[in-house]
Amino acid sequence: MLVLITYDVCTSDTAGRKRLRKIAKECVNYGQRVQNSVFECILDAAQCRQLQHKLLGLMDEKQDSLRFYYLGNKYQTKVEHFGIKQSYEAEGILMV
Q1: C-alpha neighbours within 13 Å on the C-beta side of residue 63
Q2: Helices 14-28 + 45-58 axis angle, to 10
């Protein structure tokens, strides 16, 4: 299923900037960055729970925000892209 993950981390101090880097790094391990704090991830239920658990452990619930949007398996009809930064095929081959 396609899961859209967004986050907002308070970066007013060094600890916040460190949390931001750790959350972004963890998201990169599971999906593709599509905007600064937005990732598209193709996950099964177990991977989703695992990532959610990791991210919740990294964030500060009193200062940060984390959202998961579950777009499901038929997400192609639910996503439209306009403007710069060409879209990519989420389940296609991604060369690094």
Answers
A1: 13
A2: 170
Q: How far is CA 16 from CA 35, 50, 66, 86, in A?
A: 19, 22, 14, 30
Please name which of 2, 9, 3 lies closest in space to residue 56, comparing C-alpha atoms: 9
Q: What are phi and psi of 26, to 5 degrees?
A: -65, -40
pTM for the model: 0.78
pLDDT in tens, 5-21: 999 999 999 999 999 99
Tokens 């892209």, residue located: 81
What is the residue whose two structure tokens read 């750790």?
22
Q: Where are the beta strands (DSSP E) in 9-64?
A: 32-35, 38-42
